[in-house]
Amino acid sequence: VDPARRALTAYFFDVGQGDATLLAGPDCTIVIDAGRHDRNDVVPLLRSAGVQSIDLLIGTHPHADHIGQFPQILEAFAVREVWMSGESHTSRTFERALDATLSSGAAYHEPRAGESYRIGSVLVEVLHPAELSGDFNDSSVGVRISFGQVALVFTGDAERHAEHQMIARGHALSAQILQLGHHGSRTSSTPEFLHAVRPEVAIYSAGEGNSYGHPHDEVLQRLSQMGIPVLGTDRHGTIRVTTDGSQFQIATERGVLMASPPREPVYSR
Ligand SMILES: [Zn+2]
Ligand SMILES: [Zn+2]
User: Fold this and answer.
1) Which of 188, 192, 200, 269 is closest to 231 using CA atoms?
2) What is the pLDDT of residue 256?
3) How remote is the CA of residue 18 from the centroid of ligand 2, in Å?
4) DSSP H helices in 35-91
5) C-alpha span between 18 and 206 (Å, rounded)
6) How many CB atoms lie within 10 A of CB 256?
7) 40-52 per-position pLDDT tens digit
8) Burial status of residue 67 (CB atoms within 10 A of its CB: 0-12, 13-18, 19 or more)
9) Which residue of 79, 109, 123, 247 sits 20 to 30 Å from the alpha carbon of 261, by its own alpha carbon?
10) How many angstroms separate the CA atoms of 74 and 259, rounded?
């Protein structure tokens, strides 16, 4: 048996100021967010990662840096099921994403906190939202994805209010890998949330030199005080986390390697 096939690999793609993450397991393929509306990079990235079909495509919320390339993805791959928060935007980008979903033949679901699904050997627990608030970011679909003993948490662009709700509802939030909410914005990653997740590594997706200043210094300082290493797609390019269900390794496009338990990063040429 090819050992690589017994693993789950998470690819935090470098897609500029947006989000697109692939979870490629031995028997399931999940894509969380679809990159920016003004780029065309996600399908080639998924193809180069070996994706042939997608079991679950999640659009965490209707902003154009998260659902931008829904049409291209749904055109290029057979997608079994699509999840969206249920918030609807008046933008053309959202309309196109919804139209592409409806005409693709994929099943469609608006997940709510507390649901959980086993997709092949991966467990998907829905952390958020419990109900819609009308605030696109704060109603982002949040999920905890686990493979064996290793878990990853994704919260889209959820901000502090949503983080407090996830804690208050008593979800198991602990995870080795946390994708920092809202591209590392100071409006997310509260100390309480970071303590609840207790990640060994934090990863954010942001574009180099983006106009929002993501990731914000406050968040980076908070993580540094907690001793949590941070990797970002702006500095490291695409970040790849591979786990066999008990250990994990991280490799990035620009040469930083890290293995669990976290050690000093090893810089390779
Ligand atoms: Zn965003
Ligand atoms: Zn957003």
Assistant:
1) 200
2) 72
3) 9
4) 42-48, 70-76
5) 6
6) 18
7) 999 999 999 999 9
8) buried
9) 123
10) 34
Arithmetic mean of pLDDT over the chain:
95
Ligand 2 mean position, distance from CA 72 (Å): 20
Q: What is the largest CA-CA distance in the chain?
A: 49
Percent of the chain residues past pLDDT 90, beyond the cut: 92
Closest ligand by atom to 33 CA: 1
Residue 157 CA, ligand 2 centroid: distance in Å: 5
Look-up of token digits 């919260």? 155
DSSP strand pairing (116-119 vs 122-128): antiparallel
* 36 token code pair: 């920016």
Question: Which tokens is 103 given?
Answer: 């005409």
**14 contacts 44 by C-beta, under 8 angstroms:** no
Measure Cα distances from 163 to 175, 182, 201 in Å.
15, 12, 18
Parallel, antiparallel, or unpaired: how do β-strands 142-147 and 150-154 relate? Answer: antiparallel
Q: Does pLDDT of 80 surpass 50? A: yes
Q: Determine the straight-line distance between the first and last CA of the chain, rounded to whole angstroms.
A: 31
Q: Say how many Å lie between the CA of residue 181 and the centre of ligand 2.
A: 10
Q: How far is CA 204 from CA 72, 120, 156, 226, 261, in A?
A: 24, 27, 10, 17, 20
Q: Which two tokens stand for residue 97?
A: 């994403």
Q: How confident is the model at residue 91 (pLDDT cuts 50, 70, 90)?
A: very high
Give, for 263, the enclosing helix (H) or strand (E): none
Gap from CA of 268 to ligand 1 centroid (Å) = 31
User: Which of the pair, 208 or 4, is modelled with greater confidence?
Assistant: 208
Conformational region of residue 205, where left means phi above 0, alpha means psi within -120 to 50, and beta covers everything else? beta
Write down the residue that tokens 């509260």 correspond to.
190
